[in-house]
Write a structure and sequence with these properties.
The chain has 441 residues and is of the alpha/beta class. It has helices at 2-8, 29-41, 55-66, 102-113, 133-141, 176-186, 204-211, 242-254, 273-280, 325-334, 354-364, 395-404, 427-434, and strands at 10-14, 20-23, 42-43, 45-49, 70-75, 78-82, 96-97, 119-122, 145-149, 153-159, 168-170, 192-196, 217-219, 222-226, 231-232, 236-237, 259-266, 284-293, 296-304, 338-341, 369-372, 375-379, 387-390, 412-415, 437-440. The chain binds shikimate-3-phosphate. It is an enzyme of class 2 (transferase).
């Protein structure tokens, strides 16, 4: 059923247009997942506002319902979670379906490895191709018992082990999902769990642990938690997702005459690589107002069209913009000169191989690229032609190529777009309201 849906939706983008006015993008996906997870494990009732009603976060919500947690909503972004406490989850009576969502599967692997019951995590055709040994291996070092299918892929069969022990571990790759899985397992482990990251990645789990009253010690790239601390319910305001804002930031930069305001966007410094990269390319970006809500920084952003220049992307910005490269490649194709990205091999194991799939799509629109094992070289300034692009069911590829139409010479057709609903429900209507000529069939 979902595979039929995935291959059928096509976006038709008509060239031209500019982005103006004021918009608000849906809630942050990473924070929405974590709000359900920690709210479920807390003592008391957690009220969430601004929750992302996208398929990925809803998959996490449905998993917790199957684990016996009472959750009301979502209704206009409001969710009420009746926490069951650290030890209150119930054995599910079926496999837990994570859909397209790597965040659900990896974080749940850590959390469920520490329960006194067995369960199985499954997902859709894309998710079942993604690497899970990166979470299974370190969890086994904590005493967990998990089995993957061949090649370390899902489904994940978890044999509950309520006696995990703390771990001192250096992550072999920059991954907030793996870090978070280990921190969640660490909530249950005997003693201390000490995780060191090769590069700083998004820290929403650490911030939310603190919000729920679990002490987290952070020194540079090392994070420590001690098992056995209970969580206490706390209200959560989910900010707008900067990864969803990214498409509009790029779209406004590349379409002459654009002047767009984006309200209440999350600007956690572990997520703002997109702003830094666009600024290095010459973008006209302003932070108009900034504030903190529930331990997360937010801002209203204003972006105006301006000619961009190609750059070599600083590698230290890569993990801070990891989900934004499909959009940034569109900006690079419109920029004057060459853009070089390296140190981004992780892009190959996202919802699609985002290096190859973007290179293929850019080529279909007449842009010359050179594919590297860990990045991409894009020759900018040639202008997008007309053509058909395959998104391979990857939401961020589909939305990125929609923005390319703003400065294309002819129509762009984007195939396999239904998964946009995983992270950005209402994308087509919001994009049209802002000035894109886009329709779906
Ligand atoms: C996420 C972490 C990142 C990111 C994903 C969401 C998270 O994945 O790409 O969209 O919420 O922790 P990795 O940990 O695989 O880099």
């Amino acid at each position: 059923m979902s595979e039929m849906k995935d291959t059928m939706q096509v976006y038709h983008a008509t060239p031209g247009g500019r982005l103006t006015g004021t918009i608000r993008v849906p809630g942050d996906k990473s924070i929405s997942h974590r709000s359900i997870m920690l709210g479920a494990l807390a003592e008391g009732v957690t009220e969430v506002t601004g929750f992302l009603e996208g398929e990925d976060a809803l998959a996490t919500m449905n998993v917790f319902r199957a684990l016996g947690v009472q959750i009301e909503g979502p209704e206009q972004g409001r969710v009420t979670i009746h926490g069951v406490g650290l030890h209150g989850l119930k054995a599910p009576d079926m496999a837990l379906d994570c859909g397209n969502s790597g965040t659900s599967m990896r974080l749940l692997a850590g959390l469920l490895a520490a329960q006194p019951f067995d369960c199985t995590l499954t997902g859709d055709a894309s998710l079942t191709q993604r690497p899970m040994a990166r979470v299974a291996d370190p969890l086994r070092l904590m005493g967990a018992r998990l089995e993957t299918a061949a090649g370390g892929r899902p489904p994940l069969k978890i044999y509950g082990t309520p006696e995990l022990h703390g771990l001192t571990y250096t992550l072999p790759m920059a991954s907030a999902q793996v870090k978070s899985a280990l921190l969640l397992a660490g909530l249950y482990a005997q003693g201390e769990t000490v995780i060191t990251e090769p590069e700083v990645t998004r820290d929403h789990t650490e911030r939310m642990f603190e919000g729920f009253g679990v002490p987290v010690r952070r020194e540079g790239r090392t994070i420590r938690v001690t098992g056995g601390h209970g969580l206490h319910a706390t209200p959560i305001e989910v900010p707008g997702d900067i990864s969803s804002a990214a498409f509009f930031l790029v779209g406004a930069c590349i379409s002459p005459g654009s002047d767009l305001r984006l309200q209440s966007v999350g600007v956690n410094p572990t997520r703002t690589g997109i702003l830094d990269v666009l600024r290095l390319m010459g973008a006209n970006l302003e932070i108009e107002r900034s504030w903190i809500a529930g331990g997360e920084p937010l801002a209203d952003l204003r972006v105006r069209a301006t000619p961009l220049r190609g750059i070599t992307i600083p590698t230290e910005l890569v993990p801070l913009a990891i989900d934004e490269f499909p959009a940034l490649f569109i900006a690079a194709a419109c920029a004057e000169g060459r853009t070089i990205l390296r140190g981004a091999a992780e892009l190959r194991v996202k919802e699609s191989d985002r290096i190859q799939v973007m290179a293929d799509g850019l080529k279909a629109l007449g842009i010359y690229t050179e594919v590297l094992p860990d990045g991409l070289i894009i020759e900018g300034g040639q202008g997008f032609g007309s053509g058909t692009v395959e998104s391979h069911g990857d939401h961020r590829i589909a939305m990125s190529f929609s923005m390319a139409a703003l400065c294309a010479q002819g129509p762009i057709e984007i195939r396999d777009c239904a998964n946009v609903a995983t992270s950005f429900p209402g994308f087509v209507s919001l994009a049209c309201a802002a000035g894109l000529n886009l329709n779906a069939s």
